[in-house]
Amino acid sequence: MRHEQVAIHRRNRNLVLAAGWLLVLAGYFSYEAIVVAAGALVLNGYAWFLMRADKRLAKKKSWRIPEASLLLAAFLGGGPGALAGMLIHRHKTRHASFLFLVPLFCMLQIALVVWIGRQ
Question: What is the CA radius of gyration of the chain?
């Protein structure tokens, strides 16, 4: 059962991340800031949702979302959403990898947005 859950989770994760990036890139190349913002909202909302869902699963002592998926969502554009999810839901706040990497991804993504905005 666990293998099936992981496979379903990975497929859904990849679809959401791909959809978010398609929106970001389509908006960037068509000079439509609202489409870029929609893509960023998808990526960050999904990262936040994963943190929330994993916290709820942890409370139920149920199957958990792999940590690699949480970090991947944060790395691929969902840094601010993952950081918000960590802080709001008090989830993964004792894991050194999350305490270091998620804020780092968040800062890098904000810096990238500022840099692109100045171009």
Answer: 15
The per-residue pLDDT for 46 is 98
Model pTM score: 0.92
Alpha helices (H) in the chain, listed in sequence order = 2-29, 33-60, 67-73, 79-89, 96-118
Token pair 């960023």 in the structure block, residue: 40
- If one counts every other C-beta atom within 10 angstroms of the C-beta of residue 5, the result is 13
Domain range list for the chain: 2-118
Question: Which two structure tokens, joined as six digits, stand for 7?
Answer: 């496979």
- The size of the chain, in residues, is 119
Could you identify the residue written with the tokens 């398609």? 22
**What is the per-residue pLDDT across 34-70, written as a single tens digit (0 to 9) for each?**
999 999 999 999 999 999 999 999 999 998 999 999 9
